Structure formats: C-alpha cells, structure tokens
UniProtKB/TrEMBL annotation:
Entry-linked CDD domains: SET_SETMAR
InterPro entries: H3K9_Histone-Lys_N-MTase (IPR050973), Post-SET_dom (IPR003616), Pre-SET_dom (IPR007728), SET_dom (IPR001214), SET_dom_sf (IPR046341)
Cellular-component GO terms for this entry: chromosome; nucleus
Highest taxon, organism lineage: Eukaryota
Domain SET: 125-249
Designated name of the protein: Histone-lysine N-methyltransferase SETMAR
Pfam families named in the record: Pre-SET, SET
Organism: Myotis myotis
Length: 305
C-alpha cells in the first residue's frame, strides 16, 4: 500500500526583518532571497568603535507633568524637531547644514507618544526589498510617504576609522560598498566622524541605492548616546511603489562640494551610477580618505585575518 502524500506546508512570505520591525519587510519576486546577513534594527558596536551605540549616556529630561517643548525640555536644544504630524521640520531654502536632532531617550519620563520621539519608534510604513534592473537589490515603499516623514534608518556595525579603511581596501570593483562615513562639524572647528557598515550586520537601509536626485534625506539623530542614528526622511512626497534612494555622499540636500573627484586610491576605477536622473554624475560618490594607504599596525599588534 502506497503511503499517502503529506500536504505541502503553506509558504510564509519572507520577512527580511525577521520580525524585528513594527511591520514586515517583504521581498519581490516571491521566492527570491537576498544574500545572508544578520538583521539588526539598531547599530551594533564593531571593531574599533569608540563608543557602544547601545549604551545610554544622555540624562533624561524632566518633562513629566508638561509636554516636551523648547525652553523647558533639555532634549530640545534649538527648536522643535518635528511638527504636529511627526514630520521633520523644514530647514528652509537657505540652510547649508542640518540642525542637530536630539530625541527624548530611555531616561526621560515623558510618554512614548511624546512628539520628540519619532526615529526611535522604528518603521511605520510597509517597505519591500526588490530586484532592480541593473542595480541589484533595491528598496521601495508600498505606501504613500509625505514629505518630512521618517522612513527608516541606515543601521549596521559602527567601526573605527582604521577598520573602515581596512575593509574598503579589501574590496574589489565587483563588491558592493555598504560603508558610509558621516562627518559632523561641531563647535571649535572639530569634526565628529561616524563609520557604519551594514554588510554583515544591518537593517533594511542596507538595500537603499544611490541617486543623484534622491527622494530621501539622511539626518544624524541622537537618542540615547552620542553615536548618531542615521535617520532617513522623505525629501518630498513619495508614491507607493517608488524606489527609495539617498545620496551616498551624505551631502545635505544633495549639495555638491566636488570632494570626490578623480579616482580612489590604488588606481581603482570609479563605480558607475545607474540612477538615471537628469543630473546623474555618471559615477558613485566615494570618500577619498578611506582609500588612502592604511597605517601599519604597531609592533606586537595583530591584524584581523
């Protein structure tokens, strides 16, 4: 007697976020699967990191019986970060840089629905990882996103400069470059640097492609520590089904400074840009400082194999 065939188990749609986000992140086409990586909705400390991004280092505000507003809330250093619809405030046409954004943190007594808690709430709209024509994997929205609304973070391993440089040096022209270098100019002419690599450990932001006319704007947002969350907001209204993109150079409002002209170190060729925008620069931006010859380790120190 032939054994009866067991019914096929129902196939669950793939969630790239592994249930770690408020909403699942689907994949298209069905059955396709991006290369392996460990999903993390938040930064994790990587080699050479100066600080643990998960450590709470900011004191909380004292806004228990009153709302968090400028003048009384210690987290609001300048003006309100977001409007009544949780949209990033408009910096204005004359702005050449973003104001620092500090959200209320884990030590603040204000409620979870406080207007100064936006990025920390995570994904709010359904996103989808999909195969693009000529650019590998990409990310798109399945719902309308109004201008100024938070979309997602670019989260991954927070690296020290030497480790970021070492990883860049090991890449070939065929490898995808996930490493981003964010430099913030602070008082006294100092520059704060943050290097993030979501290649091995990262979130949905690792699937975002570059565009010379992006629809997302990256803003460093601090919640619990000085390690900034690299938050991406809608630079304009974004329609359902539209691919999401940002400027890999990190330039605010896509302003060009000509800092990545020429070739990376070692004579490596520039990677072509396939964004297709009217103002396409033909090549992807890069950070020249990461392509310089890395310093040799001190005697007695072993490098990573």
């Amino acid at each position: 007697m032939a054994a009866s065939e067991e019914p096929e188990a129902p196939t669950e749609p793939l969630d790239v976020a592994c249930g770690l986000e408020n909403v699942p992140v689907s994949v298209w086409p069905p059955g396709a699967r991006p290369g392996p990586f460990q999903y993390s909705p938040d930064h994790v400390a990587g080699p050479g990191a100066d600080a643990d991004p998960s450590e709470i280092t900011f004191p909380g505000c004292a806004c228990l019986a009153r709302p968090c507003v400028p003048g009384t809330c210690s987290c609001l250093r300048h003006q309100e970060n977001y409007d009544a619809d949780a949209r990033l405030r408009d910096p204005g046409p004359a702005a050449r840089c973003a104001w620092p954004v500090f959200e209320c943190n884990a030590l603040c007594p204000c409620p979870g629905h406080c207007g100064n808690r936006v990025v920390q709430r995570g994904l709010q709209r359904p996103l989808q990882v999909f195969r693009t024509d000529g650019k590998g994997w990409g990310l798109r929205t399945l719902a309308f996103i109004p201008r100024g609304r938070f979309v997602c973070e670019y989260a991954g391993e927070v690296l020290g400069f030497s480790e970021a440089q070492r990883r860049i040096q090991r890449q070939t022209e065929h490898d995808s470059n996930y490493i981003i270098a964010v430099r913030e100019h602070v008082a006294g002419g100092r520059v704060m640097e943050t290097f993030v690599d979501p290649a091995r450990v990262g979130n949905v932001g690792r699937f975002l492609n570059h565009s010379c006319e992006p629809n997302l704007l990256m803003v460093p947002v601090r919640v619990d520590s000085m390690v900034p969350r690299l938050a991406l907001f809608a630079a304009r209204d974004i329609s359902p089904g539209e691919e999401l993109s940002y400027d890999y150079s990190g330039r605010f409002l896509n302003r060009s400074d000509g800092g990545d002209e020429g070739r990376p170190g070692g004579g490596k060729p520039r990677k072509p840009c396939y964004c297709g925008s009217a103002s396409c620069a033909a090549f992807l931006p890069y950070d020249a400082s990461l392509y310089r010859t890395p310093e040799k380790p001190a005697p007695g120190q072993e490098g990573e194999v």
